[in-house]
Design brief:
Elements lengths: L7 H7 L25 H8 L14 H14 L3 E5 L2 H12 L5 E5 L4 H10 L6 E5 L5 H6 L4 E7 L11 H10 L4 E4 L4 H4 L9 E5 L13 E5 L11 H4 L22 H14 L5 H33 L4 E5 L9 H7 L7 E6 L2 H11 L4 E2 L9 E3 L11 H6 L6 E5 L5 H13 L2
Parallel strand pairs: 2-3, 2-4, 4-5, 5-6, 10-11
Antiparallel strand pairs: 1-7, 6-7, 8-9, 9-12, 11-12
Bound molecules: pyridoxal-5'-phosphate.
């Protein structure tokens, strides 16, 4: 019977699962490395992409397929590929569309690991990254040249949680025939519909809020299915691919597969031959997380706003950044785009600089001192001495990172308990 399209809360619980022969209500974990071919013709068709189906778990798995379909539905995309980590999702995305001699133009306020990948690893492979300040979209425009294969941004950037104007940067990208890659980890598909705003490829680290329990590492790439890879900038999609018996991805695929050329190339080139696959057990863990993502993101956002407002009035705090504070520089654009909340991340500066910050980290209770975000439990970190310590002092300052900055990933505890723990730690400095 026809019905109105399901809303995100419903999609998060149901999309992608077709009940199998066991009638199992929960999504089963298919712990298998390989799948029986019906006969040699079936096997040949699978390898030739004439028919889609299971071959080997490095390439695809029925449990992982549920996860991929569910994230695709939540993002409003065309296809997704889950991988061993958010980091491998980023690397595979870049090498699927760029090769030696090409470049991408990236926001400079990135997750620490991504920054190092772009700054120190990709250039060694011949893929250069031009970093620009994303606050002004025209900075991307100025940096694009004939070898540019993509623009890259995060929805809410490090370290001061500036909201990036996805729509404005997508317009720049599309004016130049370049796809926009968006790392949407900090907003998740529940808070922000990046594809509606113009993203062509969306990356989520599943490790964070989608998993939500700090229980596994994973990443996922979602292909919006709308970018025209034939437009002229992507020879990897228009010239015969030696990785796949001479297939021209943007030209030769049969009609139903043509819109997901990017996702198919991720699966059949880097995933197949470099191998950072997700285990079906971890896919199952992330499916459990997805089921409650909408309710959790609402609570994360409410708790974070309560804490940001409290810290703002605290005499020992010099500044607070949270995109949901009405006087935050990011508020105008963030409140236009984020309809369900502003996420769980809050950063603030403590009076007394590096020493005071370190003292708070070492004395606070309830907040776990870890290099992670997006757990149901509240987390605390001092980026200058940890996640961003590989950057030079100049790079740190350029990205807005100061030594008094403390980063909170606000969890689902009662906010009054979190405020009491923060107040006690602040009283000690
Ligand atoms: C954690 C994170 C990553 C990397 O994901 P992993 O799953 O840890 O490899 C990338 N981008 C952002 C914004 C992240 O928070």
């Amino acid at each position: 019977m026809s019905h109105t399209p399901y809303r995100p809360e419903t999609i998060a619980l149901h999309a992608g699962q077709s009940v199998d022969a066991t009638q199992s209500r929960g999504v089963p974990v298919y712990r298998t490395s390989s799948y029986l071919f019906k006969n040699t013709e079936h096997a040949a068709n699978l390898f030739a992409l004439k028919e889609l189906g299971n071959i080997y778990t490095r390439l695809m798995n029925p449990t992982t397929d549920v996860l991929e379909q569910r994230v695709t539905a939540l993002e409003g995309g065309a296809a997704s590929v889950a991988l061993a980590s958010g980091t491998s999702a980023i690397f595979y995305t870049v090498i699927t569309l760029a090769e030696a001699g090409d470049n991408i133009v990236s926001a400079n306020n990135l997750y620490g690991g991504t920054y190092t990948q772009f700054d120190a690893i990709l250039p060694k492979l011949g893929i250069n990254v031009t970093f620009v300040d994303p606050k002004d979209p025209s900075n991307f425009e100025k940096a694009i040249n004939e070898k540019t294969r993509a623009l890259y941004i995060e929805t809410i950037g490090n370290p001061v949680l500036d909201y990036t104007d996805v729509k404005a940067i997508a317009e720049v990208a599309h004016r130049h025939g370049v796809p926009l890659i968006v790392d949407a980890t900090f907003t998740t598909p529940y808070l922000l519909k990046t594809i509606e705003l113009g993203a062509d490829i969306v990356i989520n680290s599943l490790t964070k809020w989608i998993g939500g329990h700090g229980a596994g590492i994973g990443g996922i790439i979602t292909d919006a299915g709308t970018f025209d890879w034939k437009a002229g900038r992507h020879p990897l999609f228009t010239e015969p691919d030696a990785n796949y018996h001479g297939l021209r991805w943007a030209i030769d695929l049969p009609e139903p597969l043509a819109p997901i050329a990017f996702a198919l190339r991720v699966r059949t080139v880097p995933l197949r031959n470099l191998g950072a696959c997700i285990s079906p057990d971890n896919s199952w863990i992330f499916i459990q997380g997805l089921e409650t993502l909408p309710v959790r993101m609402i609570r994360h956002s409410e708790n974070a706003l309560t804490i940001a407002e409290h810290l703002k009035s605290h005499p020992k705090v010099s500044w607070v950044r949270y995109p949901g504070l009405k006087d935050d520089p990011s508020y105008p654009a963030a409140s236009r785009d984020l309809k369900n909340g502003f996420g769980g991340m809050v950063v603030f500066g403590v009076k007394g600089g590096y020493e005071a910050a370190v003292k708070i980290i070492d004395s606070i209770r309830l907040f776990s001192h870890v290099a992670n975000v997006g757990d149901a439990k509240s987390l605390i970190l001092h980026p200058a001495s940890t996640s961003h310590s590989q950057l030079t002092e100049e790079q740190q300052l350029q990205s807005g990172l100061s030594s008094e900055l403390i980063r909170l990933s606000v969890g689902l505890e009662h906010p009054a308990d979190l405020i009491e723990a923060l107040d006690q730690a602040l009283a000690g400095v």
